[in-house]
Amino acid sequence: MSYLPLVGLPADTYESHGFQYHSIGDKYVRAVAEVALCSPVMIPSMIDALQIDDLLEHFDGIVMTGAVSNVHPPHYGEQPSPSHEPYDHARDATTLKLIEKVLKKGLPLFCICRGFQELNVVLGGTLETELQEIEGRLDHRAPKHEDVDVRYAPAHAINIRSGGLLEQILGKRETMVNSIHRQGIKRLAKGLAVEATAPDGIIEAVSVRDAKSFAIGTQWHPEFKALNNPDSVKLFTAFGNAVRTYAAARGKSLRTVA
């Protein structure tokens, strides 16, 4: 029996009316389904009830999503403060362990925004917050506007490293990206290579050194209306191809999608 590869996406958590909820933005699952051509599956952020090793046996790739929340500073040796808020401790407990296991197992991994920052933290890097308050930094926050197309519109150029993995995927040395974050990488983890930077030097993309498979992170949001953005199509297609290669190597019979 043939099937589409399964891609796991960890959930954010929030409380409403006394109940806890797990959620993923539509744009992430849509990019996985419509561009990567894989079946997206939510991974609830409840580490106490998950057997991650067993869970990963069912997946062929993982996408670490962006979120409103930020990684809790003690995870990278800093003290929490109001400038780092809001937090999602349930997500931290799940995703930081999940990324570690995914890299060890060699599943294709695509980390976006918060996921990009989680990847750096897992490998020993640190983060800085409120970039717009630091001299010499751009304001990387989204414009305050009700129209989502305005908030996610291209905001600044990125310089792509010559000869890097991102250049191989996109086929160019510069492109425009959206910018919807307050935090960024402060100290780059030793296990990561810089793939692109913003005009102010903020790291915008990384790859995992000596990764067993596709393992890339972007600070921007390529998942937003991915089908309409040629760069996003190339990124999610490359990820999807890596997922299919991983699944095929495990002896799975894959369905062809037109």
Compact summary:
This protein is of the alpha/beta class. The protein contains seven helices and 13 strands.
Tags for this entry?
two-stranded antiparallel sheet, alpha/beta, 258 residues, 22% strand, 13 strands, 9-stranded mixed beta sheet
> How would you sum up the global shape?
globular
Structural class: alpha/beta
Secondary-structure element string? EEEHEHEHEHEHEHEEEEEH
What characterizes the major β-sheet?
9 strands, mixed
What is the CA-atom radius of gyration, in angstroms?
A: 17 Å
Strand content: 15-25%
Strand order of the largest sheet: 4-1-5-6-13-12-11-8-9
Number of strands: 13
Number of helical stretches of at least 4 residues: 7
Alpha-carbon distance between the termini? 18 Å
Describe this structure in words.
The chain has 258 residues and is an alpha/beta fold. It has 7 helices and 13 strands. It has a 9-stranded mixed beta sheet, with helices on both faces. A two-stranded antiparallel sheet has the order 2-3. The chain starts with 5 loop residues before the first strand and ends in a 9-residue tail after the last helix.
Task: Annotate the secondary structure layout.
Elements: E1 6-10, E2 12-16, E3 19-23, H1 26-34, E4 39-43, H2 52-56, E5 61-64, H3 89-105, E6 109-112, H4 114-122, E7 127-128, H5 148-151, E8 156-160, H6 165-170, E9 174-177, E10 184-185, E11 192-197, E12 203-208, E13 215-218, H7 230-249
Parallel strand pairs: 1-4, 1-5, 5-6, 6-13
Antiparallel strand pairs: 2-3, 7-10, 8-9, 8-11, 11-12, 12-13
